[in-house]
Each structure stands twice: as C-alpha cells, then as structure tokens.
C-alpha cells in the first residue's frame, strides 16, 4: 500500500523513520534483507532516487550494511540496534516536549498525567 | 539534455509561452504544475516536437527538436479518445510500426501489471482502463525522455496509484527523464524530484521537492499555493 506522508518533513527521512520503527517493532529483524530499491519504491509509491537516499542514509547510520551482489541487510550488530532504541526514545521525548511547550504545559504537570495513565 | 532557449509560442497572436529558458536535468522525474491555461500542454507539445515554437530554440543533446525527435521522446497525449477503434494489442502493434524503440512485450507486461485487458477495443474500455492502456503504450517505448500530459487526470484514486506504481516499476531513472503535468500534486509529489510552476506561459518557480520540505518545511502543494494566495499578513492557515 502506498504510504501517506506528513507534509512538513522530507519523504526520505519519513522512510528512514519507518524502517527504524519496523526494526524496533520486530517487523524487521537483525540480518534481514531489505527489498531492492525499486521494490521498495513501488511498495511505498515514491521515487527511486528517494529510496536510494533512504538506503544511503541507513547505511551511514550503520543500521544497514550492503553486501556486494546480495543486497542490503539490517545490521546484525545488536549494540547498534540497542542504541537505535535509545535514539528513538529520545526523539519521541523531544517531540513530546516541543508539543507540550507549544501549548504552555510544564514537564512536571505532564509527568503527573503520564504516571496516572499507566 | 533537453534544453529550451528563449522559447515563445503564440496561438493566433495570443502569447501562450513567453521566453522560456530551461535545461531539463537527466535522471529525474519532473512535475509541471500550474492552473488551467498556464501553457502546460503547449509546453509539452513544443518539447515533444509536435508544435514549433514561434521564437527561440529547443535542443536535445545539442540537436534541434523537430517531429523527428520522436525517436528520443515518448509523448503521452492528454486526449481520452485515443485510437478508439483499436484493441490494446492493435494499439501496441501500431506503436511498434511507428517507433523502432517500442517493445511489444514490455507494453504487454505493463498492461498486465496495470491489470487491463489488451483484447478489448479502447472505445469499449472504461476511462480508467483507457488511461492504463495509454500508459502501457507509452512505457512500452524505451527512450531517454517521456513527456506525459496529465497522465492521471480524471481517473479514480485506485487507478492513479496503479499508474504511479507502473511509472516507478517500468522506468529506469538513471537513464531516463520524465516530465509530467498534473493537477493531482498531493498524490504525485512522492514520485517527483523536481517541480516547475508555470504561470501565464512563464516559469514562475522551479524547486527540488525534498529541499522544499527540508528547508521550507512545506510540501509541494503548500509551496504552490504560496504563488496564488493574495499576500495577506499573518495568514497562517
């Protein structure tokens, strides 16, 4: 199914986030092979050049590795994925802080709400 | 490289294109947008060598573009009634007789991908299926340039999505360049590298789509609206 993209972020970075999310959710496992650039482009309905950029970005982040002639694979380095978890947590927290700041809520009052939620 | 140098076009003394200069980069999908009557169709016909500019020059790899340039440029017309008495197979045979670069097999593979029957007369097909067939015939050609006039116009979202996927699947962006005009910018943006806005026959703006999002935090639709909105301060919506 073609993806819906949010309007204010580059499409390539939304796809990077999506693949990272799939790793954390376990939809993609350590050492899994990613689809070819064209397959992934057709699947998500985006330009091949954009997917190339996504794959390059993931490789630069050491999330994936390319094996010559075989394709692109999720890293089998568990530490890297552990680090990714931490990075994603931080990113979520930062997004959250930005949104509550915009509405004038304090971290402290939101913490109370968060605790009561669970 | 396809290049426009000071190209103007007049229709019965009415200027349609005004002094356009532009180089189309290779290996990109370029969207041509602009309101009705801004000159998109005329520009595409001029680029495909179907209309001769009133002034200026169009060159393809240094050679002037004429009707004979059709061997390097595949043009998809915006007309709906398109070889209506042919079946898909006959349409592909006709293309094969006209264009050396046409691959009958590839066209059939594209038609299959788009799930359209090649044994029915085009006249008897739905509008969506005619749109699919037109795309299959165009992508059956192996050329460095595709010029597509409104390939998604008037089609439902399912057909549009399929055509977009067909475009990704069956073109080779390293060696081919696609220029397509569209009003369905929101849906088409994910496959565009670049975007050109035409207003009253002039190129008003030209941008890299990802740069727009990255730098201006705007998608292409927002960007385009900015050229039409009357300038009101603090108009935030």
UniProtKB/TrEMBL annotation, chain A:
UniProt entry keywords in alphabetical sequence: DNA-binding, Transcription, Transcription regulation
Domain HTH gntR-type as annotated: residue spans: 9-77
UniProt cross-references to InterPro entries, sorted A to Z: Tscrpt_reg_HTH_GntR (IPR000524), WH-like_DNA-bd_sf (IPR036388), WH_DNA-bd_sf (IPR036390)
Entry superkingdom: Bacteria
Full protein name: Transcriptional regulator
Species of provenance: Lysinibacillus boronitolerans JCM 21713 = 10a = NBRC 103108
TrEMBL record, chain B:
InterPro entries in alphabetical order: AAA+_ATPase, ABC_transporter-like_ATP-bd, ABC_Transporter_VariousFunc, P-loop_NTPase
Superkingdom of the organism of origin: Bacteria
Domain ABC transporter, first and last residues per copy: 2-225
Name assigned to this protein: Spermidine/putrescine ABC transporter ATP-binding protein
Keywords per UniProt: ATP-binding, Nucleotide-binding, Transport
Coiled-coil regions listed in the entry: none
GO molecular function, one term: ATP binding
Organism: Lysinibacillus boronitolerans JCM 21713 = 10a = NBRC 103108
PANTHER family: ABC TRANSPORTER ATP-BINDING PROTEIN ALBC-RELATED (PTHR42939)
